[in-house]
Amino acid sequence: MNDQVKISIDARKNAFNSFELTDKRKAEIDKLFAEIEKLGNSCQDAGDFENKFAASPLNQEYMDMFTKISMDGMAEQATKNAAEGAIRSAIGAKVPTTKAAVHQKAYDAARDIPVVGDAIDLGQKASYIKHLGGLFKKKK
Asked: What are the boundaries of each domain within the chain?
């Protein structure tokens, strides 16, 4: 194969290096490039190859491969989003209870610290007094 033709084919093949590919997609790309290399072997130079490649159905297959890879990525993301949604829905009712339990444990632990516990008690008493005072205020 002509060196310039090989460079052209390799550049096209390397365009797929930045994608995360499934084994199935890698096999499809390898099969496609086996055909492209056959075409390249039949060409005299890079100009001849580019003209034949542009007129060949291999060109469209090459372009379609990018669409397939993009669709793979979108399908993978949709699957992840659906799984996340299912997990959130499954535990959604439990989250408030869990948050409340964690908050209560932290609150109880803080009460055991002498100065902090006293401050919590004073804060609660002040809150109750404020609330009760509001109940007995005259309405204008």
From this structure: 3-92, 94-135
